Amino acid sequence: MTDTKTWARVKSPWVLHFNSGACNGCDIEIVALLTPKYDVERFGIKLEPSPRHADVLLVTGAVTQQCAERLKRVYDQMPQPKFVVAIGACACSGGVFEGNYNVLGGVDKVLPVSAYIPGCPPRPEAIIDGVVKLLNAINPPKKKKELAEAPKEAPKPEVAPVEEVKQ
Amino acid sequence: MSNAADMINLLESKFGDRIQIKQGTLEAGAIIANNGLHYDVLKAMIEADEKTGITAITGLDLGDKLGVYYHVHTAKPFFTIKAEVPKADPKIKTVVDIHPGALFHELEVTDLLGVVFVGNELQGHFVLSENWPDGVYPLRKDVDATKVQLVPTPEREANKNAEGRQVKIIIGPQHPALLEPEKFSVTVDGEIVTKVEPRIGYVHRGIEKTAESRSYLKDTYLVERVCGICNPIHAYAFVSTVEKILKPAVPERAEYLRVIALELNRLHSHLLTLGHAGLEIGYETLFQYFWRDREPIMDLIELTSGNRVYGSLITVGGVRRDLNPEHIPKIKSVLEDFRKKMPFYRKLYQEEPTLRLRMKDVGVLTREDALKLSVVGPVARGSGVDMDIRKTQPYSAYDEIPFKQIVYTEGDTWARMNVRMDEVEESINIIEYAVDHLPSGPVRVEVPRSVPEGEAVSSVEAPRGELFYYVKSNGTDMPERVKIRTPTFANIPSFLKTAIGESIADVPSNFVSLDPCFSCTDR
Amino acid sequence: MAEQKKKGKSRISPIFKRAVSHLFTKPATTKYPFVKPQLPADSRGKLVYEIKDCNAIDFGCGPDFRLDIKALRGSNCQVCVRDCPAGAIQIVEVEGKKRPQIDLNKCVFCYQCVETCPRGAIKQSDFYELATTDKGALVMKPEYKNKKEAS
Amino acid sequence: MIDLWLIFRILVFPGFTFILFLTLFCDWVERKLEARIQNRVGPMVAGPGGILQPLADFIKLLTKEDIEPRDTKKLVFRYAPLAAFSIMMFAMCFLPIDGASVISTGGFSGDLIIILAFATIANFLLFMAGWASANPYGTIGSARVLTQFLGYDIPLYLLALTPAFIAGSIQIATIASSFPYILLAPWAFILFIITMQAELEKDPFDVPHSESEVVGGLETEYTGAKLAFLHLTRDVQVVFGSALVVELFLGGPNGPVFFGLDWLFYTLWFVLKLLIVVVISEYITTVVARLRIDQVLTGNWKILLPAALLSLIAAVALATWVYHPFGIGMAVGV
What is the pTM (predicted TM-score) of this model? Predict the structure, then answer.
């Protein structure tokens, strides 16, 4: 069994959703995750109101000028260890809106992103698959049958360093 | 003043040759009224017909002149007042004093095109972001918007509290109740709201400017992504405007398939809002039940179009995918199951004590205010204004399909939510009728890639209200100008008015009854 | 408004019975990662690019557009690049031939390329588990499976 | 000479550890019940059926980075959550769980008043925590906590005194062991449940931490261990409130005992009755919408307070003329 600290982190990933200028297609799919058909509370995932309580930041939308600075501030307010998941084609790369004047196009231009979930919008199952892969990257499953095919060499999310928490 | 001829005669008698009226173009007629005459023409129209209101104001870059087109809807006919202003000093008289509903439209044209409305000047930016340089207007042809040099964000003035007991509460961009970033600074005196200032523009992706540099085929997909919840109606509005210029022979079966896609979308959008209202007033269980029963509808959308949310069925000249007959029994069974659940939900919304406590007499919008602010959709129909575009100006196959128009007169949050609840029932009837009477034949007709010179407008009934499109084409395969006026853009002023005088605790409940969609508002 | 126990209200709201009945009905949750959902046949998932079809010479016009392809006979016609709304398709050199490379980060899965490709080289699949922790894996580089195809 | 048995009672069995696990178990029961009512599945991954989910949440919060914003009131911000938690645990030690209360076996006359006072102090500390966290939502949320629990404390005390008066003593052990007062004063039981809903800030009265108005309420600024203790305090309050209902109205841990293992069966009866009350409270929370702040306050001052007074007067009248002459419900001398 992994040590309790990682076990606790993997078993209760609290989530904060930030819409940085999306068409709310992906946001509705994220909220649909909480509803009975998909119910991510099975994995201990709770939608938290304040950035202080959240571990995983779900970002949707091609970051607009207005939202870029606020996105950075919300990310800074979150306590370590924190992860960013880019959901939807807009968050991964700007999607259809890439090249517009008010759009930065992609979350990785502002924040270090740990997981990318393409799709316009990605199915709720695809978002769950993305979160599961992120959790597997944090706590690589050793012996037991992997839930989904574990990423090749279970690369540590090279962007978000998990440094020790200074008490 | 029910038909166009009377209105035109009245205007000709009143203004004679000072204005030209081109009948038949842009729906009922285009009235060219320059150097300040647009104010008097509008005033005359408002006096003549109580239901007159401004649907949208389109700003155009006409080379050395800037065009300001006032799209005016009356009881039945639809007019456009064309005013032109020299680019050197773009000044024009505001119409906010005779029609308060025009406030937002004018501010947006100022921000994006640089026309100054005398009497309704804009400080700072309305839709654009704070670090956008002043004096540069993205919608002008000569500005290459992507290479604009941005200024550093101005120092955010500390939110100085208003004087006396008043406290300014910011319902900030990142807020659990709002699915989308939007900032409302609410000035509160004790518990009572005295002022609400919105700051939109967080989701402004400059779709109108980008639409000018992409082909009509690509634009259908771009325009759909204005709003993820009501995407087929955006595609249909754009496509029907282009088809008014191109005039292809769209097959009958395609029109019926379009109606099915639109009504499935209205169904899932209304269920989404009815559930979200529960979440806003702390009624988690209602939210969970509604969204659980919404999932089969999403599966239907995927069944008929291949993607849960972006069906991308509607394209210029018809529909991209036919409805294969084996799916029809599945559609009917899902709709039948949902119809069995309707009594439970209707009884809940009509009689649940705590829900009535939070929704009755909250955000009361009188019929006069609704007309003056020219609000649209369920917000208007909740206050007794019987304005459903599917009935007043039927499009696609709606004139052949029988359905009722839902109007409540109480005008509060409870009434608006119940309008949506009854419309869910109507949508089910429409889909079942359309599926039963589906004509046979092709679903698509070939359409040339470039569109001849011309301009057209069309307004359609989106789940949130009347959606208005204006397209001007210049013969190439890219549009010259695409103007999108979304329903929430017209409904937000009504929230600013009804929130005043009510307790801060009512703001979320009043706000969600608007069914706001900010990705629509900001485009 | 009366604050006493809800049970004492005259109009008992229907949700009380429904809530209790839910305690005994099976939850509506699908066990996703362990049980894969059953998707409709033609749901739009990951694109499948057949590089050998892209070479085929004999092609007909697309079902809906007059394609002035004559000038591009033989070489890669780049119709998919022109019609992709998200600009997700670029042209890359593969063994001397210019072939489309689809970047799934940008792709919005609208399947316009599947429709306009005169040779039907891009096909539909309903694979949707595309999430990944590194971005590079999402770019579908076209390559020939063996020498013979490259000729 | 250190009384090892007393230390064991305080630290392990009916004391600290037992209450901690009982709290986590009740939190799990709440989340599962709410999920089941909403036709969902609820936590499944941590431990069998997700029973370790509250524990996982607690440990994860402990290991998170502990951010202290610049302009917070340092002392209060750092120690208020811990103080509130410890007071609530101390208050729990007065309730007889296995037939006798943890600290003083028989309890002493007046301990009902003391633990109600502790509950008020804990609520007050939560207000201080929110007020100290220099965040606009924190201050608004904590101000609402203050107005709510100060208002609802008065009916709480009055309704708690109803069974005390019928029993003729204000010692919990005697009230619990003499008679299940739900039979003698059922209206007081219903009103007490409603007041408990307001004290614990559960729907329809959870205005202080409603997400749509005040983002996180008083917890907005807290992270890491401090947030863990804030959540734990709220859970212990739920267990404390339900335990109070069990002691006063359902006859505490008393129930038929078999094979002479009285401490075991007393505990089992106590936990069973506790779960019943937690289920009722959670059922109301899930099924009812949240009221506005002014409706909550008018509800208290205009309706609940008079009702509590009437219930006390009715109890007094019934006790003197009906119950005591026949000796029903009199306190049996402990």
Answer: 0.90
